[in-house]
Design brief:
- The structure is a single chain.
- This protein is of the alpha+beta class.
- It folds into two domains: 167 residues, Sandwich (Jelly Rolls); 106 residues, Arc Repressor Mutant, subunit A, CATH 1.10.10.
- It contains ten helices and nine strands.
- A hairpin with a 4-residue loop joins strand 5 and strand 6.
- The two termini are 17 Å apart.
């Protein structure tokens, strides 16, 4: 099965985003497009027709006016349903640059530490008003980028921040809620997140990381949990398992090799973590993804 990391070429490098309107004609697609992923968060607004979007845990049937959000590095694929033309807008955003010092206290909410952003799709299913507003934001962002009128970069930045605000304020299940802030620690938090992402294939020693942060081991442990709402170890493990999920379905390697490639050498520990974060074993996960490759 073809699965790939999709490169997202930004229309404006300073905005770290791409927005495009797609039109598909012809008969219904019988086969789904290949599984793919990218670091950017993706939002899709259907304007005409029916679009089916599949993730490992959900299948969304989107009609005109419907919106769906897909989290960073989330595997997904889609297809056109029915014979009518399908018209939709896709918005890809790297969220990190939009968290300037004034917004940095909210950065942790969108890091997908405990809940993938995909879980916020309940908002669109339960709140028609919010769905319409988010749809308008996506449309307005597209029009600004395509029109490139004077000051469009300001307008786009405002739209993206408005989108984040709408999600945050209308998350009635409080999936994004936290009671800590990181506004005074912008550079430290960003550097720690980047360090973990860059070293997931290696052993990550908290003592070494605490030195990078300029803190003692004990103080760093308390600091990280207070600022991020998760222990450093749990945060790293969650990131490792997320990477393992993608590698399981994109690489023809054994589970042992996948575990080692994300920095986990103890297989019992890997299985324990995988089941904790996914509710199933690696083999069951592959079956859910409809991958026929036999686990070695």
């Amino acid at each position: 099965m073809e699965i790939f990391k999709e490169p997202i070429p930004y229309q404006n490098a300073s905005l770290c985003m791409k927005v495009w309107r797609f039109t598909q004609s012809g008969k219904e697609q019988k086969e789904l497009n290949p599984w793919h992923y990218h670091k950017e968060v993706e939002l899709i607004l259907v304007e005409e027709g029916t679009h089916e979007i599949q993730t490992p845990n959900h299948v969304y049937s989107l009609n005109a006016g419907d919106v769906v959000v897909i989290g960073s590095s989330q595997l997904h694929r889609g297809r056109k349903i029915g014979d009518k033309d399908l018209v939709y807008i896709v918005l890809h955003i790297d969220l990190q640059p939009y968290f300037d010092p004034a917004m940095m206290m909210y950065y942790r909410h969108f890091l997908e530490i405990f809940h993938p952003l995909e879980e916020l799709n309940y908002i669109f299913q339960e709140n028609e008003k919010v769905k319409k507003k988010i749809g308008m934001i996506i449309t307005d962002t597209h029009n600004e980028v395509m029109g490139k009128n004077k000051g469009y970069e300001i307008a786009v930045s405002m739209h993206i921040k408005h989108l984040l605000l709408m999600l945050f304020r209308n998350d009635n299940r409080e999936l994004l809620t936290t009671h800590v802030n990181v506004d005074a620690d912008v550079d430290i938090i960003r550097s720690l997140v980047a360090y973990v992402d860059d070293h997931l294939t290696e052993k990550i020693d908290m003592g070494a990381v605490s030195q990078i942060a300029g803190m003692s081991y004990t103080y760093f442990s308390k600091y990280f949990k207070k600022k991020m709402g998760s222990s450093f170890t749990d945060y790293v493990n969650q990131k490792r398992i997320s990477k393992a999920e993608r590698r399981l379905v994109t690489e023809n390697r054994s589970v042992n090799e996948i575990a080692e490639s994300v920095g986990i050498e103890n297989m019992a520990h890997f299985y324990e973590l995988f089941k904790r974060f996914n509710g199933c074993t690696p083999k069951q996960y592959l079956r859910k993804m409809s991958v026929d490759s036999q686990i070695k």
